[in-house]
Design a protein that fits this description.
Distance between the termini: 38 Å
Oligomer: single chain
Strand content: 15-25%
Helix content: 25-40%
Strand order of the largest sheet: 3-4-5-6-9-10-11-12-13-14
Order of helices and strands: HHEHHHEEEEEEEHEHEHEHHHEHEHEH
Number of helices: 14
Length: 393
């Protein structure tokens, strides 16, 4: 049915049709076919169709109106695609046969393609995706046996423009923003591969600066948190930023109900500028003002991410400066040892130094957690696999 055309097909499409017919004969097609397992011929035969991956519920309602249907059909289609994960329009039983034929003729729901999947000894699982234009993009699934959480770390951009001196993604520069479909597609791929309960939490801590792709990230969160979408409450979603102060205020004002994390990494303006060029534009004092506004407006606490670099930000002076900086802000601090990146100057401190830092900080800060490094054996740090792939090409 996917190979029907109203006019005589181009010779290349005849080959595609033949390959498709052969594949359909040789294998049993499941009622719900995971996005990452569509036959290659089927991908080719659908390339002229509009991909609905990433369409929000209002956009699908508008589409139905354009097609001469009632807008509520868009809500039904949204439920089928994101909640039920049924991608065959013919099997959407509450849509009319006429509508199903229209959708089948002109639309598709095409997911991401994994170029590489790596499994760590600690069960961390990293996905390297290749986007349609050839750009690489990553996601990481991180299990936590002690809490039972499965956290999926997703990307918001291919590459990043901020150029943090310790980050593999920063070496790539900004390739482009991810679309809503490419953001949501990371979650869809992992669910199709790992099952309905593949993840319990989402963190926008992968490639890119989420607040520099603000609209697409916000709309993706709406799909993720919709009851008839991916059904993950917004409180289970954390948006991490390097400190784009105006966008933090904007995020507070729209009332999205997600959590906020700030990649701080240094407690003084001078040290922050040395490792994070963005600090030259968005000064530390203005950043802290924006964070105070956010916590007051949303009545939630913020998470400060603090990566420890050997002999740079791991001394007692740093502890005192950090405690003074966050005073009066409802927050928790996550301490992480640096995950080394080949070719970059920073080194990882010893485990003993990391534990010492956490113990010295806790009496001075309201909540401190020392995070265990994950996926060291599979280049799980942000951008490492993508950077290696681009270097090879």
């Amino acid at each position: 049915k996917h190979a029907r055309y109203r006019t005589a097909p181009h010779p290349e499409f005849r080959l595609i049709i033949g390959l498709l017919h052969l594949q359909v004969k040789q294998q049993t097609v499941p009622r719900i076919w995971p996005l990452n397992k569509w036959p290659k011929a089927l991908h080719l035969s659908r390339m002229s169709k509009t991909n609905l991956l990433g369409y929000t519920e209002p956009q699908l309602e508008e589409l139905m109106t354009t097609l001469g249907e009632k807008s509520y059909k868009g809500r039904q289609l949204f439920t089928w695609l994101y909640k039920v994960r049924q991608y065959d329009f013919d099997l959407m039983s509450d849509l009319s046969g006429k509508l199903r034929k229209k959708l089948d003729a002109d639309y598709t729901f095409e997911g991401l393609t994994a170029d590489h999947i790596a499994q760590s000894e600690d069960s961390t699982r990293k996905y390297l995706f290749q986007l349609p234009d050839g750009h690489p993009m990553e996601a990481v699934l991180i299990p936590d046996e002690s809490s039972g959480r499965m956290t999926l770390c997703v990307s918001s951009q291919a590459g990043c423009a901020l150029g943090c001196h310790f980050c593999a993604t920063g070496t790539l520069g900004l390739l482009r923003d991810l679309t809503m479909g490419e953001i949501v597609g990371q979650l869809m791929f992992v669910r199709d591969e790992q099952g309905e309960n593949a993840f319990t939490n989402i963190v926008f801590m992968g490639m890119g600066e989420p607040l520099n792709n603000f609209n697409n990230v916000v709309d993706a969160v709406k799909i993720i948190s919709a009851g008839n979408g991916l059904s993950l409450t917004a409180k289970k979603v954390t948006i991490s930023t390097c400190g784009i102060s105006p966008k933090i205020i904007k995020l507070a004002d729209i009332g999205l109900k997600t959590r906020l994390a700030v990649s701080l990494n240094a407690a003084t303006q001078e040290k922050r500028e040395r490792i994070m060029p963005v600090a030259k534009t968005f000064k530390l004092d203005k950043l802290m003002e924006a964070i105070r506004y956010y916590t007051d407006k949303t009545r939630t606490r913020v998470t400060f991410e603090y990566i420890l670099f050997k002999d740079f930000n791991d001394g007692m002076d740093d502890i005192k400066a950090l405690a003074n900086l966050i005073k009066g802000i409802p927050c928790k601090i996550n301490i992480l040892a640096y995950n080394p990146v080949e070719g970059l100057e920073f080194e990882r401190p010893s485990d003993e130094k990391v534990d010492w830092f956490g113990k010295q900080l806790y009496p001075r800060a309201p909540a401190v957690t020392v995070r265990k490094s994950r996926g060291l054996d599979i280049d799980a740090a942000c951008g490492q696999l993508a950077a290696k792939k681009l270097a090879r090409s």
